Amino acid sequence: MGFEPRAVFAEEHGLESTHLARAPGRVNLIGEHTDYNGLPVFPMAIQREVHLAFRSRDDGFVRIRSIREDFEEVEFEIVPGIAASPAGHWGNYLKAPADELARQFAISRGFDGVLASDIPIAAGLSSSSALVNAVGLALAHVNGIILERLPFAEVMAEAEHYTGTRGGGMDQAISMAGHADHAARIEFSPLQMRHVPVPQGWCFVIANTGVRAEKSGHAGAVYNARRKECEEAFRIVADVALNRGLIHSRLTGYRNLLQILEEDIVIEVGEDALRGTLLQRFRHVITEAARVEAAVDLMISDDLQGFGWLMDDSHRSLRVDYEVSSKELDELVMVARDAGAEGARLTGAGLGGCIVTLAEQGKVDAVLEGLSEGYYAPRGITTGIDQDLFMATPSVGASVITL
Ligand code: NG1
What tens digit of pLDDT does each residue of 276-312 get? Predict the structure, then answer.
């Protein structure tokens, strides 16, 4: 991608951009649909990024265009309560950080910007949060707002709710604060990160189904519904635990529940208290949280095979209990495993988007080959395949570069 947006900026404005905000996408290795339940996740930032070349303006307007012709230019004034664009319009991801920063920090200076991104859109790789972070960083920069990375990520997580999805905060955090060559265990309230080196020889491969998981459409509705189901399941289980004298005061959330009671007791109470869908959602959340802790330990002890098994378990739980897989995601997972991967799972919210698969260095070519032959070739996708199928490099978080 290079610095393409700079050239477009110069052409369009007849003068140079002064800064470049860059923000990476991410791949979540394990810990899916746990963040909004207040439980940990284990993602890493990747080498795919949003780049925003920008230059401060003297007024309070933001004007951004994309180097992609199919994204229309967006212009708005920074005020608290910016009128949203129609649902699904990319402008909402630009307005989101402006609206939040106006509310929290009374910012009033805008910028002109040109944007480029090589993160696949609606694919579970956080193209949206990278966009929000890049625009947020540019706004903070031109308004002289200085915040540490994690508090800034928290502001951006709140900001993204403007777009209509009640996300949990993982994406903004890892995109802001990831370290090169590391994954990160992230916990919430307060937001904290533990950076874990990815062992030499562990190769994470991302493969895109090509089916978009639009947050403004069905996938977004399912996402918000899952969040509600988890809240309801928690309320019921907490009441039962209280009535049985297992706990002695009101719980604040899933994390609190798991701090007080052992995982198997929690599952037992859940199985008594819940039925059907709510039990399934609850079981996924509790077991996935345990898989995050196990995965961190396995990465630290360089246990590639054990980590792979956890990825398989996570996918099964997301497919059976959380019901956010799809036939394409299941197919990719199967093809990857058959080609020699140690484990594979859907990554991100699901219902389309990508899988992440783990292979040891010596098998990675076979896995890439297996996926291109087994999934892409039968669909007639033979060129430009590296857009959909690539190795993920654990990468550094967002920054603003002076040009
Ligand atoms: P993706 O897949 O990038 O849309 C979403 C949420 C995360 C997390 C995952 C599921 C947003 C911005 N991101 O990610 O917070 O809940 O789903 O684990 O809503």
Answer: 999 999 999 999 999 999 999 999 999 999 999 999 9
Q: Measured from the CB, is residue 288 less than 6 Å from ligand 1?
A: no
pTM: 0.96
Pocket mutation for ligand 1, best pick of 223, 346, 356 (most atoms within 8 Å of C-beta): 223
- Residue 379 DSSP label: G
Cβ atoms of 160 and 128 within 8 Å: the answer is: yes
Rounded to whole angstroms, the Cα distance separating 170 from 130 reads 12
CA of 171 from ligand 1 middle (Å) equals 7
Q: Considering only CA atoms, which of 90, 50, 64, 88 is closest in space to residue 175?
A: 50
Question: Is there an atom of ligand 1 within 6 Å of 349 CB?
Answer: yes
User: One-letter amino acid identity for 1?
Assistant: M
The one catalytic residue among 171, 313, 321, 388: 171
Considering the chain, what percentage of its residues have pLDDT values greater than 70?
A: 99
DSSP assignment of 308-345, as one string?
A: HHHHHHHHHHHHHTS----HHHHHHHHHHHHTT-SEEE
